[in-house]
Amino acid sequence: MEVKKEKLSPQAERTKHQFKQAFTELINEKGYSHVTVTDIVQRAQYNRATFYLYYLDKPDITEELRKEMFKQIKRTSMERYEPGKVISTASMDANSFELVSFIYDNRLFFNLYLMEDTIPGLYQELPRAIFELFEEQFTFTPIGHHDINSSSFKLYMAHGTAGLILDWARNGYQKSPIEVSQELIGILQSFAAGFRVG
């Protein structure tokens, strides 16, 4: 939604969060195409007038939810790294992949990736966010003389990372976030000695 760009109060932010939470729950239960604005306001325990203070319609809340989660995926992946600093992959530990914990904490949303009747275009969001992150922020130091900073290699890494994460979700998050993080670190260590952020 392009209107209402002013900073919202904490109460307004809470209200919007409750609408998005209700919307996500309903998509998980009924499928995206079957959720209505009436469903959302009833689940969130607000009235339609309150919904329309913040959103034009169902596509509007959908777009905000998608954009918000896309930004969060990228932001969470960057939080612990200082711009310009070179990180050795050998020094990484299970806390180095905060994205994995973020996904685990937001399972309700990421389970939408496993549904047939889900938010339109959602399937491509996770690999696209990871790819943009690699392209914009990460320069890898290869083991050997391979070009691992090309767009094609970063695209391959992004889809591989997203694939492992979605497989984890598909299997009911049986492995802990620490185990998944360690697997991803092990894969990264197989071809990269380190990376620079920013």
From TrEMBL:
Keywords: DNA-binding. The keyword Zinc-finger does not apply. SUPFAM superfamilies: Homeodomain-like (SSF46689). GO terms for molecular function: DNA binding. InterPro entries: Homeodomain-like_sf, HTH-type_Tx_Regulator, HTH_TetR, TetR_C_Firmicutes. Residues 13-73 form the HTH tetR-type domain. Pfam families: TetR_C_8 (PF14278), TetR_N (PF00440). Residues 36-55 bind DNA. PANTHER family: ACREF/ENVCD OPERON REPRESSOR-RELATED (PTHR43479), TETR-FAMILY TRANSCRIPTIONAL REGULATOR (PTHR43479:SF7). This is Bacterial regulatory proteins, tetR family.
